[in-house]
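A reminder from the course coordinator: this example appears on the midterm review sheet, so study it carefully.

Given structure:
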């Protein structure tokens, strides 16, 4: 009696187990019509039957990357390389000076100083150049005073007018020369005259008469002699010399002139 009651229960239990077994792997029955080919059971999609038939491996769902063990050189890194990339140049790598100078200084100077100056000083100062007017000495016929080269140092410019008693233009300009002496007094001009024909007998008396007829005439009239003739040579009358304070000739005029003409000449020399 008990076996009869248990049999239906066993049948129902067996049917439930088969049913549950079929629900757990439904794809094995649907996608594997060939029981001889085992189906993979690794949790991935099964390969297609076309891939199995052609013998080619099926594409995997996720691409894989094979590790090479070397860094990817496509992207530059910030790290310095262990060795220089190029060959060394002949020039120094930096602008810093080297530890020691490249050229050694000479042990001794190349040029030795001379023991003594190359040019010795002269034992005596150089002689002063000789003046243009040679030494002379004479007396004035109208005042008796002696005159020589020292008279030049007493003025900036000395005017020496050489005339003769037989020269009409000389006598005509004598008043103008006296006027020059009066107007240029204190301005660096000194005026003397020389009687060129004083050695001719009677000429001194003639000269004294001429200058006596000129109102206010007070210029010295020097008597000519050999030294005076050498100092103030006259190829014609009148001849007038302008001499500086050192006895050098500034200008020689061989014509008579008016007062204004003389002023123009003198102003250019003072």
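Designed residues:
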């Amino acid at each position: 009696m008990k076996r009869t009651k248990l049999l239906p229960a066993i049948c129902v239990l067996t049917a439930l187990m088969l049913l549950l077994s079929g629900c757990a792997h439904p794809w094995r029955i649907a996608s594997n019509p060939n029981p001889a080919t085992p189906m993979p059971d690794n949790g991935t999609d099964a390969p297609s039957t076309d891939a199995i038939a052609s013998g080619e491996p099926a594409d995997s769902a996720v691409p894989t990357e094979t590790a090479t063990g070397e860094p990817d050189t496509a992207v530059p890194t910030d790290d310095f390389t262990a060795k220089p990339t190029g060959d060394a140049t002949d020039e120094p790598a930096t602008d810093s000076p080297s530890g020691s100078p490249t050229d050694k200084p000479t042990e001794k100077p190349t040029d030795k100083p001379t023991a003594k100056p190359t040019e010795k000083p002269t034992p005596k100062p150089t002689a002063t150049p000789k003046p243009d007017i040679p030494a002379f000495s004479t007396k004035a016929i109208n005042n008796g005073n002696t005159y020589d080269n020292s008279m030049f140092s007493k003025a900036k410019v000395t005017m020496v007018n050489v005339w003769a008693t037989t020269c009409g233009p000389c006598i005509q300009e004598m008043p103008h020369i006296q006027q020059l002496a009066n107007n240029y007094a204190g301005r660096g001009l000194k005026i003397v005259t020389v009687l060129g024909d004083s050695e001719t007998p009677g000429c001194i008396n003639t000269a004294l008469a001429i200058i006596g007829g000129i109102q206010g005439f007070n210029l010295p009239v020097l008597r000519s002699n050999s030294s005076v003739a050498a100092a103030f040579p006259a190829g014609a009358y009148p001849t007038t010399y302008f001499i500086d304070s050192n006895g050098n000739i500034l200008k020689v005029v061989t014509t008579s002139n008016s007062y204004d003409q003389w002023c123009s000449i003198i102003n250019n020399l003072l």
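DSSP finds seven helices and seven strands in the chain. The CA atoms of residues 10 and 179 lie 183 Å apart.
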